Structure formats: structure tokens, C-alpha cells
């Protein structure tokens, strides 16, 4: 929708194309324009006192409206646009060619495995940076089989990639609810109030110890903040690609976390050494000396072993729980 169409067509027509505009008026506590009224007329008719209460002049209000619609249109197009991500091999640390090309589609989970220092984070960084042969590995990342628009590298709003890193430190003096609400609003997310509630509820399902919207973010434990950021990414982030740098040590329900992230039809790449998570992926990339040395498709035999691994895991979790509670393990 052009600026002209947005401002001069009857509001009912504009709303049919951009239902999220209701949220814009809600957030300013303004009544919606009449069906036949154009937004330009609505803005011209706003009382000066109303604008003063909002802390905006007429031009700034108009600009906020236009930017909001541009932001919303940009976000939905980013998500719809990504049907595939291709990684074209570069060179390992010894300069040997990787010789692979891998295409990933939404809904797929790929694990990245390899010894410490082998280059797992580097591969995630190449994807986040949408590398074009300009990183130490010489890899190239294509979107829908082509070199993507360079704005994806620099735009913070239309991010191609959401990255969940291992360390989460909050320094702001905000409650959980305020923090997530500000985040939702900054992302132009429609129906943000419902989403905020959903995020807090989901995060509580992932974390062991419950917390609520009034908890100050600085007093969340490591596992709780991680759970909050995972739920936030799954529900708020419009980025079609999610990169996860290890979730196994976070003290959260990692299987649920993965299920939550995958449900939102994203391409997920995850550095992990957790056998259960590794087998839940469709394939894994084995990194050695900075290069992808092998690509393993999860076999039926491996998948059949998942049940057994889950039983083992539950036994270990139960023991861990007992240790946490201060029990002894004289009898298993
Ligand atoms: N193909 C490559 N060519 C040159 N340098 C590389 C290559 N791959 C990785 N490196 C460099 O090697 C170093 C270690 O890589 P990285 O941090 O990605 O390892 P990692 O597997 O994530 O380690 P950890 O498991 O300890 O987090 C980094 O400085 C990275 O930039």
C-alpha cells in the first residue's frame, strides 16, 4: 500500500488490507476512524489537546502511522519470502574445500556437532551474517536460491535470523511483563497483550521454577531468562530462521523448547551435543577443523533408539531432581 493509498482511501478499505491498524489506534487509546473517513481527514480532525496528550504534533502522528504500516508490511513479507536457505561450502581452517551445498526448508531442524573450537559458532555466524564469501570460511548463504537483498544484513526490524545465544544478561529495571510488552510493541506485533501473556505462560512451562509478569527481569535465574527468551523468540520473532547455540545446559525443558520453536514453521539450526536433540533433527552437520566434514541424515535406526534415550534421560532427570531436593542416592 502506498502512502497515498493509506492516507486517502476510505478507512474501511484500508482496514480490510491492514487489520493490525486497530492495534495502532488502541495503543494510543483513540477511537477508530469512521468507515468512510480517510486517515488524512481523521488526522486533520484530531483535537490539538488529544495530540498534546499523546506528546505528538499532527505531522509526527501521521509519520508514526505510516512507519507502523511500513513496518508491518515489511515483517510479513520477510517471513513469507523465505522458502529455502542454502549453505554453499567454503574452506576449512587448513584451506581445504568443503565441497557441499545444502538446502534447508521451513520446518526443518539441522544440528551442528563437533569438538570445542571446531567452528560450530562460526557456521551459525556465517548464516546470521548472510555470508557472501566475505568471512574467514569463504562460505556463501543463499535465500530462495539467490543472493539476498543486502538490507537483510543491516535491518534490525526485518531480521532474517533470530539468534538465541548461551548467555543472557538483563540490566534493565523492568518487570517481565513490561520487558516483553516493550519488545512486542517495538516489533509491531499485532494483538501484543495476548502475545505477552502467552509468552509468560510458555516460558513457565519450560522453566522449572515458576515466575510471573511482575517479577523483575534482573531477578530471573539463568534457566528462567533462557526460557523467557525462547518463548519470546518462538512467539514474537518474525524471523524465518532461528539459530540456537546450545540449549542443553540451560536448566529448562529442552524438548519442549525445541517443539515450541519448530512449531512456528521456521528453519532451525542448533549447535548441540545432546543425543536426544541431535536425533530430533532431520540431519546433522559434523564440523571438524573449521569445515563441514560430514552430513549425516538421521536414520530410521537412530530414530528408533530415541525412545530408549528418552527413558535413560528421564531416569537421569529424576536423579538430578533428587540431588536438587537434597536427597541421597544410596538407593537408585
Ligand atoms: N573455516 C574456517 N576458517 C578460518 N577460521 C575458522 C574457520 N572455522 C572456524 N574458524 C575460527 O575458529 C575459531 C573457533 O571456532 P568456533 O568458535 O566457531 O568454535 P566452536 O565449535 O563454536 O567452539 P565451542 O564449542 O568451544 O563454542 C573461531 O575463531 C573461528 O572464527
UniProtKB/TrEMBL annotation:
SUPFAM superfamilies: P-loop containing nucleoside triphosphate hydrolases (SSF52540). This is ABC transporter related. Residues 80-315 form the ABC transporter domain. One of its GO terms (molecular function) is ATP binding. The keyword Transport applies. Belongs to the ABC transporter superfamily. It holds the Pfam family ABC_tran.
Amino acid at each position: 500500500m502506498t502512502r497515498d493509498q493509506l492516507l486517502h482511501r476510505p478507512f474501511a478499505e484500508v482496514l480490510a488490507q491492514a487489520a493490525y491498524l486497530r492495534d495502532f489506534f488502541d495503543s494510543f487509546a483513540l477511537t477508530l476512524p469512521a468507515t468512510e473517513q480517510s486517515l488524512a481527514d481523521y488526522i486533520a480532525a484530531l483535537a490539538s489537546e488529544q495530540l498534546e496528550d499523546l506528546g505528538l504534533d499532527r505531522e509526527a502522528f501521521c509519520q508514526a502511522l505510516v512507519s507502523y504500516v511500513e513496518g508491518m508490511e515489511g515483517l510479513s513479507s520477510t517471513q513469507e519470502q523465505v522458502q529455502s536457505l542454502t549453505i554453499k561450502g567454503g574452506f576449512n581452517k587448513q584451506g581445504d574445500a568443503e565441497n557441499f551445498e545444502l538446502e534447508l526448508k521451513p520446518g526443518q531442524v539441522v544440528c551442528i556437532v563437533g569438538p570445542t573450537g571446531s567452528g560450530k559458532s562460526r557456521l551459525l555466524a556465517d548464516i546470521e551474517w548472510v555470508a557472501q564469501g566475505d568471512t574467514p570460511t569463504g562460505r556463501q548463504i543463499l535465500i530462495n536460491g539467490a543472493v539476498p537483498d543486502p538490507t537483510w544484513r543491516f535491518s534490525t526490524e526485518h531480521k532474517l535470523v533470530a539468534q538465541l545465544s548461551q548467555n543472557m544478561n538483563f540490566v534493565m529495571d523492568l518487570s517481565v511483563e513490561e520487558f516483553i510488552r516493550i519488545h512486542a510493541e517495538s516489533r509491531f506485533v499485532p494483538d501484543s497483550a495476548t502475545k505477552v501473556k502467552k509468552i509468560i505462560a510458555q516460558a513457565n512451562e519450560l522453566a522449572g521454577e515458576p515466575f510471573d509478569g511482575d517479577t523483575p527481569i534482573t531477578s530471573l535465574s539463568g534457566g528462567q531468562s533462557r526460557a523467557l527468551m525462547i518463548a519470546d523468540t518462538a512467539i514474537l520473532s518474525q524471523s524465518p530462521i532461528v539459530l540456537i547455540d546450545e540449549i542443553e545446559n540451560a536448566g529448562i525443558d529442552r524438548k519442549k523448547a525445541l517443539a515450541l520453536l519448530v512449531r512456528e514453521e521456521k528453519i532451525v539450526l542448533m549447535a548441540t551435543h545432546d543425543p536426544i536433540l541431535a536425533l530430533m533433527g532431520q540431519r546433522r552437520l559434523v564440523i571438524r577443523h573449521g569445515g563441514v566434514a560430514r552430513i549425516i541424515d538421521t536414520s530410521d535406526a537412530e530414530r528408533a533408539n530415541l525412545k530408549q534415550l528418552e527413558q535413560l534421560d528421564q531416569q537421569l532427570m529424576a536423579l538430578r531432581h533428587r540431588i536438587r531436593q537434597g536427597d541421597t542416592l544410596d538407593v537408585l
